[in-house]
Give the backbone structure.
Amino acid sequence: MKFAMGSTTLSDLGKNTVGSIEDLGTLIKLLVQAAEPLEGKFNGAGKAAFDRFKTHTDQITSDLNGSLDAILGGQSGMDTAFGSGDVEMQDNSHQNMGAANFTAARFGAR
């Protein structure tokens, strides 16, 4: 199994997540507006659930945005870790190459 990820993959993902956070609030408001014609057509538990949803729309939006913010924070942390790991691996490689005796590795060299 091979895992290949470009150097901008996580930062691009983070940019898309920020866009999703902005879109989510708008979509929830549009859902409430689209459901308005249904108001008054429910009875019993269905009406109670619909009313609860309408009443708590802002809290639902806030909770979902908070979750997406946490995901964004994780993506940012992973991006930082991958970036510093890449630099560290490069530095270690250069250091080890500088200490290597390439002449001794030549076959037939005298």
Summary: The chain is about 75% helix and 0% strand. The two ends are 42 Å apart (CA to CA). The CA atoms of residues 18 and 27 lie 15 Å apart.
